[in-house]
Structure to design on (671 residues):
């Protein structure tokens, strides 16, 4: 019988297989950041161990870093200690680090791909659940816990329990105003936040094949919000074109050898998935969340659902709680929901293509009065590219704040936070209670919806905007 | 990881069930960057009460915790195990542990012993009556002994062997270093490196 893409990559990394024991898998790339690594390094020190493969390990600072005044000492002492600890650990153990202020610094899941370190057929791990992002290249990429971080540092391997396979087939083409973010929000609403539990999801079908690498990363990034262990997309010419010429991509004869291998990384025609889901792309529309988990979403044209309409008692209760926390009432049209803050950024939508699409919508328009809009590039490289294209000017002229790279308002761990009761339209991935700051209310949206929402002050798509731009020179 | 064969020490009778990991170590302690120094956070809320058993002078230096059923429920934080170990506990006895907590404890060398509730009750009475009473947790013989009391326990063979040998997951994996090295030697050269080898 044929094998799926995930099974092929897994099989190619088995170091040891023994009856009654989980497989020992080799890890090709280990990404580190300041929050989940300190105790792992501490463990190495206590055990008198070294990092086995510093040449397969890389660290960056992102979660705690401020996005303003980055040349000044970090105000929060706890954040400062976490960053200083990472710096010391990387120096002591010989790990390559891109600290705050470095040209390659940024959100860990933006940095790996842009350096060309994430490649098809690899195993990639990081002490962070959104490691699933790297699956966009046809890599098997998992988030891991601190003990596992230590295990990988010491052995470059991980024992892993077996997984099940799920295919999400997206048939037809996405309508022009529908983005990858709308698609993944619709997928999660469909299969539920626990629907992917135990599975590695492979996204397939015509709509997926047409997506750019940035869009594929947005999709795979949010696999974890469906509870999946990982998400993957088979590598193809789009993948190879993205990789070619990047810092760590192979060159010359090695490039040809690599591409020949990468082309084998497709699910065989006779392979069988444990579970299949079909989504009709042509039926999709811009999609936003109304609740407090990423599965609580609806088309922008819909209204806030009535909790009473849920058959399942658990769903009903969680919808009731969500509406209370979000300060929404059943039947309220989503387009009437007013926001105070718009956040563009994160490892979901903080790449150059995302910033370009925001700029395209907001160019020549103004951020609505009373609305604060933050545009935070996912990495310094993204920032430099945006500046070279004049996008920063487009944002600031519209009245948005152009910030330094980092996780920023994706989570309340650095100074960028919502105040209690404040409401945001956010291009990030989690709308949990308090995720963007204590008492903050989050609506997950695509970059285009974020931009249009900033202009009107209410949840909107670009189609809702009047055609009254002032010409801007870029 | 330190090997665990047999341990004898004074005990803390904790007459509470359903002790979740938030009680063991509150969330605000999770910002620390080491596995050390969590001892002051252990049962932090309860320790504000001078009557709390851990605060009693005769319990100082105890190393065995005898707890009620469902110990270690809630969040999966490994910090709960670290806090108990940092404080000085070598073993925890209860009639039932939460799965994740139990996995974390055995991974870190903290022996969690499951005894029937009547045996736990007997240990409570014994150690409450005489705080100087010592409890022996014998992993070799799979028994707990105190005074005239002796109770047997079971532990899955793989976990027991790892504790007896003092093997953590990393040392176990490193036993297959040959396999890792041979896998590495076959790794295609086109795969990326973060720095020059
Ligand atoms: S941007 Fe958000 S989701 Fe991504 S790594 Fe940072 S905190 Fe996590």
């Amino acid at each position: 019988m044929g094998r799926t893409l995930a099974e092929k990559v897994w099989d190619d990394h088995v170091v040891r297989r023994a009856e009654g024991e989980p497989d020992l898998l080799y890890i090709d790339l280990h990404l580190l950041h300041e929050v989940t690594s300190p105790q792992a390094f501490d463990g190495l020190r206590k055990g008198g161990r070294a990092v086995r493969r510093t040449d397969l390990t890389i660290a960056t600072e992102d979660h705690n870093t401020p996005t303003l005044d980055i040349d000044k000492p970090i105000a929060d002492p706890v954040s400062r200690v976490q960053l200083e600890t990472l710096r010391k650990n990387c120096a002591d153990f010989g790990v390559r680090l891109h600290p705050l202020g470095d040209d390659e610094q940024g959100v860990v899941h933006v940095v790996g791909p842009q350096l060309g370190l994430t490649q098809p057929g690899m195993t990639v791990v990081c002490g962070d659940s959104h490691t699933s992002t790297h699956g966009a290249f046809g890599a098997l990429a998992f988030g891991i816990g601190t003990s596992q971080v230590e295990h990988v540092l010491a052995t470059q391997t991980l024992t892993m329990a077996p997984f099940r396979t799920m295919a999400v087939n997206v048939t037809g083409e996405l309508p022009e105003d529908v983005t990858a973010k709308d698609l993944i929000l619709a997928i999660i609403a469909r299969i539920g936040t626990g629907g992917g539990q135990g599975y590695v999801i492979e996204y397939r079908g015509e709509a997926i094949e047409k997506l750019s690498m940035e869009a594929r990363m947005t999709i795979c990034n949010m696999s974890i919000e469906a509870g999946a262990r990982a998400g993957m997309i088979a590598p193809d010419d789009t993948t190879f074109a993205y990789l070619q010429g990047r810092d760590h991509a192979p060159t010359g004869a090695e490039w040809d050898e690599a591409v020949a291998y990468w082309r084998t990384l497709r699910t065989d025609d006779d392979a069988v998935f444990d579970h299949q889901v079909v989504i009709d792309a042509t039926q999709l529309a811009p999609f936003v969340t109304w609740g407090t988990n990423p599965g609580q979403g609806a088309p922008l044209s819909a209204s806030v659902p009535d909790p009473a309409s849920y058959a399942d008692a658990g769903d009903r209760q969680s919808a009731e709680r969500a509406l209370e926390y979000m300060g929404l009432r059943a039947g309220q049209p989503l387009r009437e929901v007013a926001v105070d803050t718009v956040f563009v950024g994160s490892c979901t939508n903080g790449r150059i293509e995302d910033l370009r699409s925001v700029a395209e919508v907001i160019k020549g328009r103004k951020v609505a009065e009373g609305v604060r809009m933050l545009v935070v590039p996912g990495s310094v490289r993204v920032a430099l590219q945006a500046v070279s294209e004049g996008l920063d000017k487009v944002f600031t002229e519209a009245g948005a704040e152009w910030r330094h790279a980092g996780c920023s308002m994706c989570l309340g761990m650095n100074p960028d936070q919502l105040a209690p009761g404040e409401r945001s339209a956010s291009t990030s991935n989690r709308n949990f209670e308090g995720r963007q700051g204590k008492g903050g209310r989050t609506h997950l949206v695509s970059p285009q919806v974020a931009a249009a929402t900033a202009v009107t002050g209410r949840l909107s798509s670009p189609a809702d905007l009047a055609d009254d731009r002032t010409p801007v020179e870029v | 990881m330190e090997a665990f064969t047999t341990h004898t020490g004074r005990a803390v009778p904790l007459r509470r069930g359903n002790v979740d990991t938030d009680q063991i170590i509150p969330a605000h302690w999770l910002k620390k960057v080491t596995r050390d120094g969590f001892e002051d956070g252990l049962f932090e809320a309860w320790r504000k009460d001078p009557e709390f058993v851990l605060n009693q002078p005769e319990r100082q230096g105890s190393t065995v915790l005898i707890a009620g059923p469902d110990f270690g429920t809630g969040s999966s934080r490994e910090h709960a195990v670290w806090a108990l170990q940092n404080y000085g506990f070598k073993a925890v006895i209860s009639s039932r542990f939460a799965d994740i907590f139990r996995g974390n404890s055995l991974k870190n060398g903290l022996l969690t012993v499951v005894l029937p509730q009547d045996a736990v009750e007997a240990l409570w009475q014994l150690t409450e009556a005489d705080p100087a009473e010592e409890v022996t947790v014998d992993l070799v013989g799979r028994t707990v002994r105190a005074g005239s009391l002796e109770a047997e326990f079971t532990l899955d063979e793989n976990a027991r062997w790892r504790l007896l040998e003092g093997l953590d997951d990393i040392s176990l994996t490193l036993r297959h270093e040959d396999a890792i090295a041979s896998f590495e030697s076959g790794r295609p050269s086109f795969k990326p490196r973060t720095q020059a080898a």
Summary: The mean pLDDT of chain B is 91. Residues 79 and 183 of chain B are 34 Å apart (CA to CA). The longest strand of chain B covers residues 6-14.
